[in-house]
UniProtKB/TrEMBL annotation:
It is a single-pass membrane protein. GO terms for molecular function: heme binding; iron ion binding; monooxygenase activity; oxidoreductase activity, acting on paired donors, with incorporation or reduction of molecular oxygen. The keyword Heme applies. Heme binds at residue 440. The keyword Transmembrane helix applies. Keywords: Heme, Iron, Membrane, Metal-binding, Monooxygenase, Oxidoreductase, Transmembrane, Transmembrane helix. It is found in: Membrane. Its main location: membrane. This is Cytochrome P450 98A2. One of its GO terms (cellular component) is membrane. The chain crosses the membrane at residues 6-22. SUPFAM superfamilies: Cytochrome P450. It comes from Juglans regia (English walnut). PROSITE patterns: CYTOCHROME_P450 (PS00086).
Length: 510
């Protein structure tokens, strides 16, 4: 009875083993840890992958081969090789590897993030660059960002002033997450799902449930993604993905319909991304799937990454009171004690900008970026990269390379006063937003929000470790995953430093 089942499995295993051997003999592949038959290096990879790959780069060199099952993944870990991947061979490495869940979520790449490089990608990229993330639109949406950041300040101040919290530390992530959530839903959907009392409405609860369910579905297929012959044991839950997609589309269409009706009544479009996309639909021949995909791309890319970046920055500032004090001195000198910071002040706050940049250097929110896929055979660092391979740039390792950075593990924002380093894809030593054809189109939006949040947190409060904890005892390790949450969420004491009337939310309805 078992023989008919065992024989095809053995043939599949043999084929996969021979395929891996063929690839290794035919091409001059980068060195790396020796793969096991069938599973490749999957069981050798430590949970925090970017650290594991950086360790292997120390042993095998700055370009390494790592096998996820029978699929070759090439990881590069220095700025020269990053430039080869993201500039010199950019077009050949501009495709995107889509897992089965990513393919389902994106309708096989009908969005921007998961689209392969080609006419569709060029079109939606053009929409983002020329229409959605222009300086004019970002400036028009500035009041939303400043509203949410001042709402965060007010919330922290209320909790500090509460006698029940006397001597207690705050969970910083809670406040940062609220800013990121409200900001991105207002920018994308024109919706603040949470009222001034912090109560979430019905649409907001549905939105959060959809986001949580998407994460759950995406994480449910990890091993089967890399070992095709195991997929029969982990079938794609077509029904679950179909239900999730329908639920996501239903909410998005309802919001789109609300905006269409409001636009017809008022005769004009607002600046939110949903309005922009609906008014541009005919001009760029955008399908409904693409509009929905782009809106959710913005939510996926913009929600967690902002909060993560600011939490790491605040952890570094609590650990380094010298840097915190220096940033506050600059804020006091430029802003003073009788008004609050606005984005218009950034140009006069170079040290604050350096603090944000240094945090993004040491703690990039997506340390391996998303994998690029080779659409042709190419050479990187003198090694062959066969068509169909995935290529990752370990931006975390690149930004800590001791040959490029003096004392790379030290949190020292002054390094960016001594040398101006671009972080939007032009200097390959610092790549928190990627580079080349797939550079993040919303980089400036992210930089503005991170800088604003840090500026307000530092101007309004002094931040110290919880009672009984020394700065050096703060846990700076990362959680495993595509994005780098702190393993232990930051707890800190906040002491107000400005007159009480400056802690009010600057609310705006738009």
């Amino acid at each position: 009875m078992a023989l008919p089942l065992i024989l095809p499995i053995c043939l599949i295993l043999l084929f996969l083993a021979l395929y891996m051997l063929y690839q290794r003999l035919r091409f001059k592949l980068p060195p790396g840890p020796r793969p096991w038959p069938i599973v490749g290096n999957l069981y050798d990879i430590k949970p925090v992958r970017f650290r594991c790959f950086a360790e292997w780069a120390q042993a095998y060199g700055p370009v390494i081969s790592v096998w996820f099952g029978s699929r070759l993944n090439v990881i590069v870990s220095n700025s020269e090789l990053a430039k080869e991947v993201l500039k010199e061979n950019d077009q050949q490495l501009a495709d995107r590897h889509r897992s089965r869940s990513a393919a389902k979520f994106s309708r096989d790449g009908q969005d921007l993030i998961w689209a392969d490089y080609g006419p569709h990608y060029v079109k939606v990229r053009k929409v983002c660059t020329l229409e959605l993330f222009t300086p004019k639109r970002l400036e028009s949406l500035r009041p939303i960002r400043e509203d949410e950041v001042t709402a965060m300040v007010e919330s922290i101040f209320k909790d500090c002033a509460n006698p029940d919290n006397d001597g207690k530390s705050l969970l910083v992530k809670k406040y940062l997450g609220a800013v990121a959530f409200n900001n991105i839903t207002r920018l994308a959907f024109g919706k603040r799902f949470v009222n001034s009392e912090g109560v979430m409405d019905e649409q907001g609860l549905e939105f959060k449930a959809i986001v949580a369910n998407g994460l759950k579905l995406g994480a449910s297929l990890a091993m089967a993604e890399h070992i095709p012959w195991l997929r029969w044991m982990f079938p794609l839950e077509e029904e679950a993905f179909a239900k999730h997609g329908a639920r996501r589309d239903r909410l998005t269409r309802a919001i789109m319909e609300e905006h269409t009706q409001a636009r017809q009544k008022s005769g004009g479009a607002k600046q939110h991304f949903v309005d922009a996309l609906l008014t541009l639909q005919d001009k760029y021949d955008l399908s409904e799937d693409t509009i929905i995909g782009l809106l959710w791309d913005m939510i996926t890319a913009g929600m967690d990454t902002t909060a993560i970046s600011v939490e790491w920055a605040m952890a570094e500032l609590v650990k380094n009171p010298r840097v915190q004090h220096k940033a506050q001195e600059e804020l006091d000198r430029v802003i003073g004690f009788e008004r609050v910071l606005t984005e218009a002040n950034f140009s006069n706050l170079p040290y604050l900008q350096c603090v944000a940049k240094e945090a993004l250097r040491l703690h990039p929110p997506t340390p391996l970026m998303l994998p690029h896929r080779a659409n042709a055979n190419v050479k990187i660092g003198g090694y062959d990269i066969p068509k169909g391979s995935n290529v990752h740039v370990n931006v975390w390792a690149v930004a800590r390379d001791p040959t490029m950075w003096k004392n790379p593990l030290e949190f020292r924002p002054e390094r960016f006063l001594e040398e101006d380093v671009d972080m939007k894809g032009h200097d390959f030593r610092l790549l928190p937003f990627g580079a080349g054809r797939r550079v993040c189109p919303g980089a400036q939006l992210g930089i503005n929000l991170v800088t604003s949040m840090l500026g307000h947190l530092l101007h309004h409060f002094v931040w110290t470790p919880p009672e009984g904890i020394k700065p050096e005892e703060i846990d700076m390790s990362e959680n495993p995953g595509l994005v780098t949450y702190m393993r232990t969420p930051l707890q800190a004491m906040a002491t107000p430093r400005l007159p009480s009337h400056l802690y009010k939310r600057v609310a705006v309805d738009m």
